[in-house]
Amino acid sequence: MRRRFSVALAAALVAGGFASISVAQLDPQDAANQPAELEPLAATSLLLDLARAGSRLVAVGERGHVLLSDDEGATWRQAKSVPTRVMLTAVYFADDAYGWAVGHDETILNTIDGGETWTRSHFAPESQQPLLDLWFANRISGIAVGAYGAYFTTNDGGRHWSATKFQPPPPPAPAGGAKGEPPADEEPPPDYHLNRIVGVGNRLYIAAEAGQLYRSDDRGAHWRVLPSPYEGSWFGLVPIRGDGLLAFGLRGHLFRSADAGETWHPLETHTTAMLTDGVAINDLRVVIGGLAGVLLVSGDAGETFRLTQQEDRRGFSALLPGPAGAVVVAGEGGVRVVRLGEGS
Fold this sequence. Notes:
Layout: H1 7-13, E1 47-53, E2 56-61, E3 66-69, E4 77-78, E5 88-93, E6 99-103, E7 107-111, E8 119-122, E9 131-136, E10 142-146, E11 151-154, E12 162-163, E13 194-200, E14 203-208, E15 213-216, E16 224-225, E17 234-239, E18 245-249, E19 254-257, E20 265-266, E21 275-280, E22 286-290, E23 294-298, E24 306-309, E25 316-321, E26 326-331, E27 334-339
């Protein structure tokens, strides 16, 4: 019931532990501490993520904008109360009422009324890093991830968050080589940007920069590094039927795995555009979006993809299934419904 964003992706679309912050510490002149303004053109502003809250659609983006649609994306209105103007990068709903959003300055917002009103549960501007994505197992337990290995967990519905060092054990060395921890004189692995977290059942995946992919088989209690077919940044993952998984990122790179990320093979995309988000509409139909108005559509469970491109070339950052034969998209120019097959 969600989707998200990365530091590099935000830069491409916008041209141009844990410590709670008390009200007394907040600078009232800082836009991060001012409520989002109601703006007539908010639905056409830069929006970075989409989620479904029951029958409602929710979009988030720049200046703390939260948009709501109760007619499958035909019309949009702003939320009644959002306590920040920071850029919101991701949104997730556990059901039709309980949801969360994350953004710059380690901002985390909570809602219990389907996105109409929001409260802020975490804010750390001194960290100078954004949170980029989040996932919840239910109304209680969740994970938020972000830049420089930021990894936060909650077990009380997002009222309090705890920071944890994200450092999965290194993969086993090749046959005949040494296994285990790196030599004492070797530098520890860098804190990679964690761009996306997605889940299916008890299994979670994280897509990160520098070709890093991670998997947990116990809802985030333990993580391990997956073999990666590519050294560039990953911006999205789409679980598909069975143990299938699609991974995508820079310069149109798209890979498919049939065994939960253990092995991969490349797919032809016919584009060099950055791929930013994807959605499995059903067992067979998968859609992946990217910059420059690129949409890749598969009708065979991600085995092959057909390239289309919107005439306005506006980049996509998030996709959700829409009315029959369409997807709801967010990105440059706001949020809209796109019929599959449109474009040149």
